[in-house]
Write a structure and sequence with these properties.
about 75% helix, globular, 10 helices
């Protein structure tokens, strides 16, 4: 059973790469709109070339990770890219509107993807030594990845508790049970998974279950909505689906990082 779970969890890197590549493609497709259309990585309105550049960078990083070619370097650079985007573009919005849950969620989504990339880098072998100062900074960032991802999970859970009615409204009618039950369950699952991963008490199982929850969201909630609006000029549905898939991959990356069966990255 453990071997089967490890096989599944190891696919987290591939799912994460697919999600990043999809966001990159979305940037290229939507660049000509001339507006900030991808909420997870806002780009400056009126400068489509930034969207083209961002899309190209994301696709290149995703290909590197998926093909395992300079994957650790790609993951580190991807994490730094997301971290800069978050602090430059999202954090000021959070400071200006601290009670706006949608803005706060966007900021922590970016941070969670950054954390997943850092955690991924920590699971990959060192390809070549870096200069000592740079290597020490990278090491600190990588070691923070798992904790940051756990913190983001707790924040997502708290935010879910604050908007239970809205979360309940997203649950398809054909799913058994009341929407409010599933809203409470997912909020509690976020908090529990975050605490578990942060403390490393049953953290691997928590990462597996959290990733499974995100995968179910991708398949049961987001994919049908995307298929309903395949030609929409508003890519929010597509972005939400790709983010859910990326968070699934990120959760399984964290589970793999916490696995006792994982080989050393050094």
């Amino acid at each position: 059973m453990t071997g089967s779970l490890d096989t599944i969890v190891k696919q987290g890197r591939l799912l994460f790469a697919i999600a990043i590549m999809a966001l990159g493609v979305e940037h290229l497709v939507c660049a000509h709109f001339g507006q900030a259309v991808v909420p997870v990585i806002p780009w400056v309105p009126g400068h489509p070339w930034l969207a083209y550049l961002t899309g190209t960078v994301l696709i290149a990083a995703a290909l590197s990770i998926a093909a395992n070619k300079k994957a650790r370097l790609a993951a580190i650079l991807l994490a730094i890219f997301f971290l800069v985007c978050d602090f430059v573009l999202q954090v000021p919005k959070v400071v200006a509107h601290p009670l706006d849950i949608s803005i706060r969620t966007g900021a922590f989504e970016i941070l969670a993807i950054c954390a997943a990339a850092l955690t991924l880098a920590g699971t990959l072998p060192v390809e070549r030594p870096y200069p000592a100062p740079w290597e020490s900074v990278v090491d600190v960032l990588i070691k923070s990845g798992l904790f940051l991802f756990a913190v983001c999970s707790v924040i997502f859970g708290i935010d879910h508790f604050l908007v239970l009615g809205f979360i309940a409204s997203l649950v398809p009618a054909w799913i058994p049970g009341s929407g409010m039950f599933w809203a409470y369950l997912t909020a509690a699952a976020f908090v529990a998974a975050g605490v578990s991963m942060a403390t490393k008490w049953m953290g691997r199982l928590a990462g597996i279950l959290l990733g499974t929850m995100f995968l179910l969201w991708f398949l049961l909630l987001h994919s049908p909505r995307v298929m309903t609006y395949p030609r929409s000029h508003n890519p929010n549905e597509w972005s939400s689906a790709f983010i859910a898939l990326g968070m699934c991959g990120g959760s399984w990356i964290c589970a793999w990082a916490l696995s006792a069966n994982r080989p050393s990255s050094h």
